[in-house]
Specification:
Number of domains of chain B: 1
Oligomer: heterodimer
Order of helices and strands of chain B: EEHEHEHEH
Strand content of chain A: 15-25%
CATH architecture of chain B: 3-Layer(aba) Sandwich
Shape of chain B: globular
Number of domains of chain A: 1
Distance between the termini of chain B: 11 Å
Structural class of chain B: alpha/beta
Number of strands of chain B: 5
Largest interface: A-B, 12 and 14 residues
CATH superfamily of chain B: HprK N-terminal domain-like
Number of helices of chain A: 8
Strand order of the largest sheet of chain A: 7-4-3-2-1-10
Helix content of chain A: 25-40%
Chain lengths: ~240, ~120
């Protein structure tokens, strides 16, 4: 199964305005992707429409979010079902600082329907760090039976390695993610201690052209959330 | 200068690692990027940061940092405090921001090393 588990939508301020539900699904299908993860910055509010669009478009969707922790570390989190997504959204609402977005500077943060009509706008800046450390976020994600993956760990900013120097041994990561630009062989040669972690690679797409450009092959027993989690925990690069 | 001599001028609250209060301070390093501290901080320096994660203590121990000062009222996480106790590296909290704390520490260190003063 080809999966691209790190895709933004129009809701992310840095996401292109073309990143609306149906075009994202079509772009992923055009690249032969079987499942995408939707991971907007610090918000899950575009997921409901995305799920519907994925169902109609015949694509599997893993509902997620890209959290910015207090340490300014980006982490992907995925949840089984709407109730868990909503519970995590309440946590985000509590912990996201009340700093308003300036669309002229950072971009629009809109929630759209399948026909690209604007349903709502997120007023608070989603690029802020939430008031919770990486350990607390990881624990909550796992309490909600979710999947926790530190994002683009090879990047020199916004990553667990750039912010904390190394991955805390007690942090329970289901996998780590390498960015689209990473050279995996070089990365693991330079970070031999990380070779025990399962690894996914994703596009981190903010533009339609990038959806599915980078992907990971996983081998779940079926398309249930539990099977997908097991497959992610067993994901190693060739 | 000893670690405990910074307490009053920097309005420090001792949070953990009190057994290290008599360590010698050779300088200071202000950074929130742990990889930067790993690469550039030197033995005996006081590390001024807003980062309260337990990795701070791991890096402080590796670099033989004299003490850690968390700015703007940040307190160490529970794991950070217990690691600090284990390593004997004091962690302080100050209401000052990193700029103010660095300025005061710089002044203290200059006064301590200028002959004929103090």
């Amino acid at each position: 199964m080809k999966v691209d588990l790190h895709v933004h939508t129009v809701l992310s301020p840095c996401g292109d305005l073309d990143m609306s539900p149906r075009p994202i699904i079509a772009a992923a299908r055009a690249r032969g992707i079987d499942m995408i993860g939707i991971t907007d910055h610090n918000s899950t509010r575009q997921l409901a429409v995305m799920r519907q669009a994925a169902r109609e478009g015949g694509l599997l969707l893993l509902p997620g979010v890209e959290v910015t922790t207090r340490e300014e570390i980006h982490c992907l989190a995925f949840f089984p079902g709407e109730a868990r997504v909503d519970a995590f959204q309440r946590f985000l609402d509590e912990r996201l600082p009340a700093i308003p977005n300036d669309p002229a500077r950072f971009g629009y943060q809109v929630i759209v329907d399948a026909d690209e009509r604007v349903l709502d706008e997120e007023k608070r800046l989603l690029l802020s760090a939430i008031d919770a450390g990486i350990d607390e976020v990881e624990r909550l994600v796992h309490e909600l039976d979710g999947i926790f993956v530190p994002a683009h760990v090879d990047k020199s900013r916004d990553s667990v390695l750039s912010q904390l120097g190394f991955i805390p041994p007690a942090l329970d990561c289901d996998a780590i993610e390498l960015s689209a630009r990473a050279d995996p062989a070089l990365f693991f040669a330079m970070n031999p201690l990380l070779s025990g972690y399962p690894v996914i690679r994703s596009s981190d797409a903010h533009y339609l052209d990038d959806v599915g450009k980078v992907f990971t092959c996983i081998y779940p027993a079926d398309d249930s959330f539990d099977a997908i989690r097991d497959a992610i925990r067993g994901a190693f690069l060739p | 200068m000893k670690v405990h001599e910074m307490i009053q001028p920097l309005a420090l609250v001792a949070c953990s690692g009190q057994q290290g209060l008599d360590r010698e301070v050779s300088g200071g390093y202000t950074s929130d990027l742990l990889s930067d501290v790993m690469g550039h901080a030197r033995e005996g320096q006081v590390w001024i940061t807003i980062q309260a994660h337990r990795n701070v203590i791991a890096i402080a121990s590796l670099k033989e940092i004299a003490a850690v000062i968390l700015v703007r009222g940040r307190r160490p996480d529970e794991e950070t405090a217990s690691a600090s106790d284990q390593e004997g590296i004091p962690v302080f909290s100050t209401p000052l921001d990193a700029f103010e704390a660095s300025g005061i520490l710089h002044g203290l260190l200059n006064a301590a090393t200028t002959p004929g003063e103090g």
